[in-house]
Design brief:
CATH architecture of the largest domain: 2-Layer Sandwich
Number of helices: 10
Strand content: 15-25%
Helix content: 40-55%
Number of domains: 2
Order of helices and strands: EEEHHEHEHEEEHHHHEHEH
Shape: globular
CATH topology of the largest domain: Nucleotidyltransferase, domain 5
Structural class: alpha/beta
Bound molecules: 5'-O-[(R)-(carboxyoxy)(hydroxy)phosphoryl]adenosine, zinc ion
CATH superfamily of the largest domain: ATPase, nucleotide binding domain
Length: 341
């Protein structure tokens, strides 16, 4: 049977991405351009810069994705596009591009929630990988620069939010810490790398376990780092690698603890990690160790597919396609699009 080819388009933040994925699992192309370097001087994303760069990058990225995949628009079954949540100006560019592409080539349009896209990175198989497809129902932790969601995935497209962050997202907490420590932007990958040479027990940071709820909180931790930084201005400060490792440990240990406590209670067929922070090496090590002890199967997405990309949007789009869940040309962007509802 001919594979179902979906063109995915992602533009929710500072990445402009297009990809062609076959049957929701085989990546034929995965083009990503990022405006990250233009935000570095500001220590965080500047929405106006992000949307301008989306406009500049979209066409070349689309052309690259089609060329790399070696397909023509006539080979495609549909165009899947992120329509939220994210930065409104950035989202609009991707959606308009997707609509224009779909209209011009007489293709159907699929609207994908960005968080759903992250989750579907787990269904993609890279050529050298032998991972089985995640089993359902799954307990999914989506952790990124803007989100920390604990999600119950009953079936494809059927989700229930069990918990979320009450303040900062884990990626945001890492990015803000890196700014304070003068390490650059984005902080997540920098702290990940630096933390490998540091002692995670050097500095005692608070761990907000919030018993009795599946919610998360990371703003106290950020405040505590600020206190520590000021207190040690005149001496007694641990090496920056130790501070980074300890701070990272406080975030990752809480994520793993809360995730697996919920898993013990709810007994999913699979525990799944997703989102930019799922690329974190310490989180992956801690989660793998805990999964082994608890005897719960764990799915980790390929590291390169954790941060924003369009292959994950095309993969999610494939399951919409199977359900005949298409959008009309009136599909709109929604900066705070909920996963459920
Ligand atoms: O999923 P993503 O690309 O964008 C959002 O949807 O937010 O996630 C970006 C976030 C940033 O906060 C970045 O610092 C973090 O993911 N991140 C990491 C790593 N790589 C990216 N955090 C920890 N360790 C990493 N290796
Ligand atoms: Zn994302």
């Amino acid at each position: 049977m001919k594979p179902v080819l979906i063109l995915g388009i992602e533009s929710s933040c500072d990445e402009t991405a297009a990809a062609v994925v076959a049957d929701g699992r085989t990546v034929l192309s995965n083009a990503v351009s990022s405006s990250e370097q233009f935000h570095a001087a500001y220590g965080g994303i500047v929405p106006e810069i992000a949307s301008r760069k989306q406009l500049e990058y979209l066409e070349p990225v689309l052309i690259a994705a089609m060329r790399e995949a070696g397909v023509t628009p006539a080979d495609l079954a549909a165009v899947a596009v992120t329509h939220g949540p994210g930065l409104i100006g950035s989202l609009v560019v991707g959606l308009m591009g997707a609509k224009a592409f779909a209209y011009t080539h007489d293709l159907r349009l699929i609207g994908v929630n960005h968080l759903e896209g992250h989750l579907y990175a787990n269904w993609i198989r890279l050529p050298e990988e032998m991972r089985p497809e995640p089993a359902l129902p799954a307990l999914v932790l989506v952790v990124s620069g803007g989100h920390a969601h604990l999600v119950w995935m009953e079936h494809h497209g059927v989700y229930r939010i069990l918990g979320r962050t009450r303040d900062d997202a884990p990626g945001e907490a890492l990015d803000k810490a890196a700014r304070l420590l003068g390490l650059g932007y984005p902080g997540g990958p920098i702290i990940d790398k630096l933390g490998r040479d540091g002692n995670p027990r050097a500095v005692e940071f608070p761990r907000a376990l919030l018993p009795g709820t599946d919610d998360f909180s990371f703003s106290g931790l950020k405040t505590s780092l600020g206190h520590y930084w000021r207190k040690t201005e005149t001496g007694g400060r641990a090496p920056v690698a130790d501070i980074a490792a300890s701070y990272q440990e406080a975030i990752m240990s809480v994520l793993v603890d809360k995730l697996f406590r919920a898993a013990e209670r709810l007994e999913p067929a699979q525990v799944v990690l997703a989102g930019g922070v799922a690329a974190n090496s310490r989180l992956r090590i801690l989660a793998e160790a805990r999964a082994a002890v608890d005897g719960i199967p764990l799915s980790l997405p390929p590291r390169m597919l954790c941060t924003d990309n369009a292959a994950m949007i095309a993969a999610a789009g494939y399951y919409h396609y199977l359900r005949d869940d298409f959008a009309g040309m009136d599909l709109d962007v929604n900066a705070s699009l909920p996963l459920v509802g």
